[in-house]
Amino acid sequence: MTYDVAIDGKQYRLELNRVEGLWRCRLDGREIEVDAVLARPNVLSLRLGNKAYEVKCERVAQDLHLWVGSARFAAEVRDPRSLRGRSRALDDQGPKKLTAPMPGRVVRILAHQGVQVEAGAGVLVVEAMKMQNEIKSPKQGTIQKILVAEGAAVNAGDVLAIVE
Amino acid sequence: MFKKILIANRGEIAVRVIRACHEMGIEAVAVYSEVDRASLHVRKADEAYPIGAAAASESYLNIPKIIDVAERSGAQAIHPGYGFLSENAKFARACAEAGVKFIGPTASAMDAMGSKTRARQAMERAGVPFVPGTSRGLESYEQAEQVAARIGYPVMLKAAAGGGGKGMRLVHHPQDLRSSLEGARSEAERSFGDSEVYIEKAIINPRHIEMQVLADERGHTVYLGERECSIQRRHQKVVEEAPSPIVDADMRRRMGEVAVRVAQAAGYTNAGTVEFLVDQEKNFYFLEMNTRLQVEHPVTELITGLDLVHLQIRIAAGEPLPFTQDEVNIRGHAIECRIYAEDPDNNYFPSPGKITLLLAPSGPGIRRDSGMYEGWMVPMDYDPLLAKLIGYGTDREQAISRLTRALNEYFVGGIKTNISLFRRILRDPDFRAGNLHTGFLDQMLKRKEAIPAEPGVDANAPEIAAIAAGMFTVLGAAAATAGERTSPDSGGEAAAGSKSNWKAAAHREAIR
Lengths: 164, 512
Hints:
The complex is a heterodimer of chains A (164) and B (512). Chain A is mainly β and 164 residues long. Helices cover 4% and strands 62% of the residues of chain A. In chain A, a hairpin with a 2-residue loop joins strand 1 (2-7) and strand 2. The longest helix of chain A has 7 residues, at 83-89. With 512 residues, chain B is an alpha+beta fold. Chains A and B meet through strand 1, strand 2, strand 3, strand 4 and strand 5 of A and strand 16, strand 17, helix 16 and helix 17 of B.
């Protein structure tokens, strides 16, 4: 199996093949001896040679992070043969969704439908645990749609607005 | 002894009190709001009663509803924990009227501490030290000059109606006093419509040190040593330790005796805490008394070997203190970290949500008082305290190294926590040297550029992460195709992640 892996934005080509009960691993063409045990869901015990590591996997909404010890890495895994993988790589242009980073309540809408916004401009305010958090536009553009009303309860990952 | 106790609280402290009840053979009654049905305290209790909507005013702060549950369940006493109704004299009175014992001080002792002027008069008579200054507004510049000369510079001018730093002026030199007084007065007038300003000795880089007291209902009061709580953020304690790095046996005895006098002046019973400001010459000044069990009580428990919640319950049941002041011994050192659901990368904004993975530390010298579990949804409606992690050792250095080790073992996935902040505090050279003051944490956080790299991070960590990313994918997929679900939860989690390019997850979802 071959994967394109991005770790904090850096690209790796990873080949993993099962050979006689062991994993043969090539990272960017370099052969690495790997012994891996899934200790429990989202916890991997890795041996690279005789060095031992515990790696934790964390998924929140659409984000994937891997923790090696206490170091945290944003990760993306793509199967280069998959069409979906390729199409997603291109969607930096087009409309962008603003999602709720945490469950909370929408207390204010700062930029309404049709309004022009700069990248980083506040679009909505979501309150959780008595603190207010501004949800910012990821790009310059126009607010195509606001999908929530003031006062609405939202869950982590809910789409709040679309910027085009 | 009581047969049944109601715990009018939630989260880790409710679990803490339920555990004490069970250790003493007492049945524990929980109350919970709509969003807390799945909370840990409900799981651990013997009986549990819903008391209303998420808003605290509808549930944990609603006195009639809680009294009603006490009556329906037949609970003989109520433990209020900390926060919510714990320092509410009206609640203590309502308990007394309903014939249920409130585990804490009497309503009148709470009232005595609540009223600043009456408390101050009683305390002054008892010889309790206050920050020197005038407790009433200054009448003239000449009076300000006289008082400042008497108490010594630097002095602080404060608006009587003040708050939030408005109408406050720090004055280092006599020649600046006149203009500062005028400035403080006009700012106070503009901000509060009241130009009254009083003067106090300015305490530069103060420490916040508090003394635990315990009083039975037969007139015995003891002190159990101090806690250093100078590591604060937004006036919220973050790290606490006992004993304080600067308090020696003599200072402890002097502070303890003052704390006992404070408690006795108010007719105080049960557990309480007397807070002091301590200046750089180790002079201590009375700040206020907290009439409840404190969040940070475990550090005192670890160095004294006492269980404060057991003792609270025994005192409330009318038992005498089972030891004298001379029998209280302090041994070792304990440090507590308050683990909050908050995002260090987003100005410590609260981060509620579902805990997808929880790896909890254990081992020598580690105590963990937690209200969370894997799979639990942290509600957005309450204080973001998740758990307290406490390290204990023969000395401060060992307590720090055990706590650091345990913080490295602690992993909370799915939400953000402040665990990384504690690693940084614990390796800060000033913290290690015990050079603490209430501005310590704000100053440390401002030194962003100078963050020493976190030690022990493998230079190859990104490559290891890349290999692990692939491994999670193939091993996840292998388990699914073999028809083995790795856990009952993994299907749901995979479904949540399937919108990404995580191909294995999508595959697993498709075959379910």
